[in-house]
Amino acid sequence: MKMLKVSKILSLALATVVAISFFSVNSFAATRAETHKRALTAEEIATITPLVDWQYYQKVNPDLVKAFGRDNSAALVNHFLEWGIWEERQPRADFNVDAYASRNLDLRSAFGDDIIAYYMHYAQSTNADRYYRPTPTLEDSYYKNTNVYSVYDFVKGQTAPRAGALPIQTYNYHPKLHFAWEDEQEQENNK
Asked: Against a cut of 0.90, is the pTM above it?
């Protein structure tokens, strides 16, 4: 009888710990993309849509090919506007929002972690303005030895990233870069 009572108490305690752990973990499980996501305005959609090179987007996101099939431009552009933009997926070869934010101190201070503001600024910039800004790509950031942080690591009014923020790319750590010589090396290894 005493053993049954102890067993029930331990079971109840274990269930409580599991429940608290489950709800605590799930409350922090939301990604930064999910916490920043909002509906885009018609103006934002019209301004940002031309930035999406759906063929490039398809090439660098094989998970989307599985989901939507090949050459489904409307679905790919829609995915970018609905989710990809918030997930910091790159819409074209010559623009990466994280590199753009990381390499432009004035924009970091003005926009903070407002990812849409960076896209709108880039899309509405003239060629002359783009000429005077650093090239907004991960590759150029690598070659210029510039650390790249997530756009979500910036705070409006500050030029430095949040305290404790880790770069998503450094000269020695660049997981999203793919160099042409790597293709050649892989082809050589497959012979």
From this structure: no
